[in-house]
Amino acid sequence: MCRVIITRNRSVAINDRGALILLQLSFMYYMFVSFSLLYWASTTTGSPCDRLFRSDVDKNGTFTSPGYPAAYGPFMNCNYEFRGHGRERVQIIFTDFVLHHPHDDPSEKPHHPWLKQSCDGADRVTAFISVGGNKEKIDDFCGSATPRELMSNSAVMSLHFHSTTVSRGSRGFKARYSFVSNFGITTGEQISSSPCAFRFNSTTSTNGTFWSPNFPGFYPRDTECHYFFHAQVGERVKIVFSYFDIEGMIPCGLTSASDFVEVSNFMTVDRKLPRYCGLQKDLKMESDGAFFRVTFKSNDRFDGTGFFASYQFTPVADAVTITRRRSSSPASSSPYPPGCILLFYLLAYLIS
Ligand SMILES: *[C@@H]1O[C@H](CO)[C@@H](O)[C@H](O)[C@H]1NC(C)=O
Ligand SMILES: *[C@@H]1O[C@H](CO)[C@@H](O)[C@H](O)[C@H]1NC(C)=O
Ligand SMILES: *[C@@H]1O[C@H](CO)[C@@H](O)[C@H](O)[C@H]1NC(C)=O
């Protein structure tokens, strides 16, 4: 109310036709704001099926749609809110998912096959994350295809379940939540001083696998993870990406707002090596020396399903064979090029 009065006073001070327009505009603005707030309040409070999960109470657990596995009722609006802290991320894994979709009814066949994909007018679960303090929708999930794993970009996340007028006996969904600090990456040794970094030491394991955060689900936004490979002296590391789906456009830079994978023989940027994004098949690489770094980085827009890779520390076979060839061949063991030797014999012949 105070704000309206202040606006009115200001407008009156201007005292011309512009003031009237200004007054109308500010009135419309305040109506918009208050309706938005009312709408927000109606969707965020007051439903008996709302649930709040806090990581200081439980690090993991399950949750379901109302009445699961019995059919859920019509006009449901349930909020499931997850609140962790620090560098915890919320991971949601759906284990069962059967929601009523109007296009499942033979009487309501879609006119176009692609309509099946749309969640408009269907019972649905919507996932929200927080970007810069604002609630942002990641996606809608509907029908009976189990959604991929979800992971938040921060310590909070929320899901909203909405059912339409009819449920026709659909049993709903069941899911597992966990507050994780390892981004769903369970190989390597996590470096606790870093937000997301993993160390792979040849002395611990000569081969193994690693993957992007939340793989095989969509990777979270605004996330940077490092994978450091430490070979022993005389070893290199070979890396093969058997699955690679990183949202972006070559050259995977800022201008195309790309997510990317950067690889390097150093802690710093390796100008010889490109960044990778998009869909790649059987991407392979080998380190120049005993250290190698793989870095994954996502921005605050769009998501891919990430990567799955294997690594192997191998002795540097090439160096051994080169050394052996050198020592067994007398010609190449000479410090002088063959031309010099010929010149020497020619000179010796001429002098004598
Ligand atoms: C779930 O959390 C408990 C501690 O709250 C822990 O002991 C258990 O290992 C966790 N289970 C999974 C699957 O993360
Ligand atoms: C790798 O492991 C060895 C043996 O445990 C250790 O001496 C070495 O410092 C480790 N390297 C790194 C970079 O952690
Ligand atoms: C990977 O390491 C295991 C032992 O940790 C070994 O048995 C296996 O042969 C290795 N695989 C390859 C391809 O080197």
From TrEMBL:
<feature type="domain" description="CUB">
    <location>
        <begin position="196"/>
        <end position="314"/>
    </location>
</feature>
<feature type="domain" description="CUB">
    <location>
        <begin position="49"/>
        <end position="180"/>
    </location>
</feature>
<dbReference type="InterPro" id="IPR053207">
    <property type="entry name" value="Non-NMDA_GluR_Accessory"/>
</dbReference>
<keyword id="KW-0812">Transmembrane</keyword>
<protein>
    <recommendedName>
        <fullName>CUB domain-containing protein</fullName>
    </recommendedName>
</protein>
<dbReference type="InterPro" id="IPR035914">
    <property type="entry name" value="Sperma_CUB_dom_sf"/>
</dbReference>
<keyword id="KW-1133">Transmembrane helix</keyword>
<keyword id="KW-0472">Membrane</keyword>
<dbReference type="Pfam" id="PF00431">
    <property type="entry name" value="CUB"/>
</dbReference>
<feature type="transmembrane region" description="Helical">
    <location>
        <begin position="20"/>
        <end position="41"/>
    </location>
</feature>
<keyword id="KW-1015">Disulfide bond</keyword>
<dbReference type="InterPro" id="IPR000859">
    <property type="entry name" value="CUB_dom"/>
</dbReference>
